[in-house]
Automatic annotation (TrEMBL):
<keyword id="KW-1133">Transmembrane helix</keyword>
<dbReference type="InterPro" id="IPR007462">
    <property type="entry name" value="COV1-like"/>
</dbReference>
<protein>
    <recommendedName>
        <fullName>DUF502 domain-containing protein</fullName>
    </recommendedName>
</protein>
<feature type="transmembrane region" description="Helical">
    <location>
        <begin position="30"/>
        <end position="51"/>
    </location>
</feature>
<feature type="transmembrane region" description="Helical">
    <location>
        <begin position="71"/>
        <end position="94"/>
    </location>
</feature>
<keyword id="KW-0472">Membrane</keyword>
<keyword id="KW-0812">Transmembrane</keyword>
<dbReference type="Pfam" id="PF04367">
    <property type="entry name" value="DUF502"/>
</dbReference>
Length: 242
């Protein structure tokens, strides 16, 4: 009777692991180091680019008396970003009072009536409000939906329950599911699926995003590691069948 192979290791029980050449060992360590270093390097380069672009556009607008480059022989990296953050904070503080809200309301009505401009303005305004809104229901769950055909499943994120005209047409038991693409999760499509047709997963949205970004190579631990009782990191796995 043939011995059953170990499914995890791909060899028979008791069989010695295959020997690895020096080149194979070095190649494995090189790629392991690259996996660790690449995300750090890419993050650093993106931040460097963004800070440089902000400094390039903000620093020339600062009066010479307030610009540290006037007194120093070198540029201060990130000074434009600091000025921008302070400016936006002051702007937010001003526009939250009665007078500021009135001025913003007038500007909003003017821009909403200008042809062409109103389409761009309203679209960007809604997009910013979606990301700035403190709404815990936005992308709060990772789910599996049967797509593109029966028997095949894909990961998605619950955006919200069907409401408005869509809710009236389909029913409020339908859920808006955003299905991102791999490896670029910023693109994808929106589907409305009945709540009974989805499988709700216990993984966090961050873990689901990592799984999509890695094309399924990074899989979150299951069952999840035990958390201290009452801790915010605890998760419950609920599966809603058909």
């Amino acid at each position: 009777m043939a011995r059953k192979k170990d499914p995890d290791m791909g060899r028979l029980p008791g069989e010695a692991p295959p020997t690895q050449s020096l080149f194979g060992w070095l190649r494995g360590r090189f790629f392991a180091g690259m996996v660790i270093a690449a995300p750090i390097a890419v993050t650093f380069l993106i931040l460097q680019f963004l800070i440089g672009e902000i400094d390039k556009r903000v620093v020339p607008l600062i009066p010479a008396a307030l610009n540290p480059e006037t007194y120093l022989k070198y540029a201060v990296p990130g000074f434009g970003l600091i000025v921008l953050v302070v400016f936006l904070t002051i702007l937010g503080a001003i526009t939250t009072n009665l007078i500021g809200r009135s001025v913003v309301g007038i500007g909003d009505r003017v821009l909403s009536r200008v042809p062409i401009v109103r389409s761009l303005y309203s679209a960007f305004k809604q997009l910013v409000e979606v990301f700035a809104k403190d709404n815990t229901d936005q992308f709060s769950e990772v789910v599996l939906i049967e797509y593109p055909k029966p028997g095949t499943w894909c990961l998605g994120f619950v955006s919200s329950a069907a409401r408005g005209e869509i809710g009236a047409a389909l029913g409020h038991e339908f859920l808006g599911i955003f299905v991102p693409t791999t490896p670029n999760p910023t693109s994808g499509f929106l589907m409305y699926v009945h709540a009974k047709e989805v499988i709700r997963l216990g993984m966090t949205v961050e873990e689901g995003a990592k799984m999509i970004l890695s094309a399924g190579l990074v899989v979150p631990e299951f069952p999840p590691a035990a958390k201290p009782e009452g801790g915010s990191g605890s998760r419950n796995r609920t599966i809603v069948g058909k």
